[in-house]
Specification:
Blueprint (H helix, E strand, L loop, with lengths): L2 H9 L7 E2 H7 L4 H10 L3 E3 L2 E2 L9 H15 L4 E9 L8 E21 L4 E10 L1 H16 L8 H18 E9 L4 E2 L5 E2 L1 H4 L5 H4 L1 E3 L1
Parallel strand pairs: 1-2
Antiparallel strand pairs: 2-3, 4-5, 5-6, 5-10, 6-7, 7-8
Length: 215
């Protein structure tokens, strides 16, 4: 038996007693991650007054509500991601060029991570997300005309080259990793900038510096 397991059993011998996430993080600073996981697996960890995991290992009421609030935030069309798109005339032997920024709502998303912050006062829900490409298509003609002073014509080979490069870059940007934090009142916020390449390739790189832990 590992020392961290012994610490948990000695500190919490009552198998029916529950412990709040924030308290565990505070009182087990050296074995925090192990202590949280040990209590979570036994269904004895709470957050915001609700069980995080059930004794069978399923998501408990706290996690279910946190995920629901995070998903509601992403479904809100006022929740947008700012994306910069470059119009590079050089690919078509045109000296001119420019860039534009548009706000894109999330078109689709998939929950892929559940964890907590180093202070224990927030749950962290991670998502793979895809932006709404239709906005890019709708606004392209306007931005092209503003940049190059002429109407966009897909039949024009030079115009097509500029579009193809910009569209490829947008597609690479449109797959994101989003990190949503949920506090003890089950209020969801997304203060961090989105990460490219999806959640695990993008956002997960920040775990160590941000001290984010998985359950």
């Amino acid at each position: 038996m590992k020392l961290s397991d012994i610490v948990i059993q000695e500190a919490a011998p009552d198998e029916d007693k529950t412990y709040d996430l924030k308290e565990v993080v505070k009182y087990f600073p050296n074995t925090m991650e192990k202590a949280v996981k040990t209590l979570a697996k036994s269904g004895r960890l709470t957050f915001g007054g609700a069980q995080v995991f059930t004794k069978s290992g399923d998501y408990g009421p706290a996690l279910k509500q946190a995920i629901a609030e995070a998903e509601a935030l992403l479904k809100d069309k006022d929740t947008t991601v700012d994306v910069r798109t470059e119009l590079d005339g050089s690919v078509a032997d045109i000296d001119d060029g420019g860039e534009f920024n548009d706000d894109y709502p999330v078109d689709d998303f998939q929950e892929t991570f559940v964890g907590f912050s180093f202070k224990g006062d927030k749950l962290v829900i991670g998502f793979d997300a895809w932006l709404d490409e239709e906005i890019f298509n709708q606004d392209w003609d306007k931005h092209f005309e503003e940049t190059f002073g002429e109407d966009f014509d897909m039949e024009n080979p030079k115009h097509e080259k500029i579009f193809n490069k910009a569209h490829k870059e947008f597609k690479q940007t449109a797959f994101l990793g989003l990190l949503v934090e949920v506090n003890e009142d089950f209020h969801a916020t997304m203060d961090d900038m989105p990460f490219t390449d999806g959640f695990h390739k993008g956002a997960a790189r920040e775990f160590k510096s941000r001290r984010i832990y998985s359950f």
